[in-house]
Structures are given as C-alpha cells and as structure tokens.
Specification:
The structure is a single chain. The protein has 121 residues and is mainly beta. The strands form 2 sheets. Strands 2, 4, 5, 6, 9, 10 and 11 form a 7-stranded mixed sheet that branches. A hairpin with a 6-residue loop joins strand 4 and strand 5. The protein is globular.
C-alpha cells in the first residue's frame, strides 16, 4: 500500500511559479514511477509528467515542457513539481500518482487527494 499527500497549491499570477510536493509513504513505493496529472473543471484528467523513483528519467507533456520540472528527494520520500512561467490554462487540481509511468491515468495504482492551482491573468 502506498499513501500520497500533495501540498503547495495556491493562487499565483500568470508568469509566476509554484512548487508542488508529493509525500509518499508505504512499504513498496520505491517500486513505482511517480506521475503528475491535472484536471480542470469539466475536463478529463491530463498527464503532466513523470519521474522514475531513481530520478534518472523524466518525461513531460508538450504543454508544460520547458516550464515544469520534476525532482525527487529520496531521503524525504518526496517528489516535487516545479512550475514556472505559469499560464491561466495551467489552472487545475494537480494530482500525484504512483504507477507504471505511462501517460494514462488508469495505469496508476495510487493517487493523492489533489491540490488546487489557480493562475490569474
């Protein structure tokens, strides 16, 4: 069993930055690739990016590439999503998840509760 808790969301102006955290616990979390997804009102959950637990590889959606980065602190069992140059269209609830590392939400076994990010224009 893996437990995930996100934090760090909030309200920011366009062009600003936020860093989201995802704290993981549980005996088997190290076996999973960690993903970030987001869901805006009325839209499907959307892939943002992934990082292998070793931290050696990351992958991002085209919509955030060059603006978002993912990192991890293995000592703290925490994964971070650094979001720069934020745009109003980045507004969504952001979720971290543990799973296969694909772009499909259904391939992830564990999810956090989500954290709201709102970008004002």
């Amino acid at each position: 069993q893996v437990q995930l808790v996100e934090s760090g969301g909030g309200l920011v102006q366009a062009g600003g930055s936020l860093r989201l955290s995802c704290a993981a616990s549980g005996r088997t979390f190290s076996k999973y690739t960690m993903g970030w997804f987001r869901q805006a009102p009325g839209k499907e959950r959307e892939f943002v990016g992934t990082i292998t637990w070793s931290g050696t590889r990351t992958y991002f959606a085209d919509s955030v590439k060059g603006r978002f980065t993912i990192s991890r602190d293995t000592a703290k069992n925490t994964v971070y999503l650094q979001m720069n140059s934020l745009k109003p269209e980045d507004t969504a609830v952001y979720y971290c998840a543990a799973g296969s590392g694909s772009m499909r939400p259904n391939d992830y076994d564990y999810w956090g509760q989500g954290t709201q990010v709102t970008v004002s224009s």
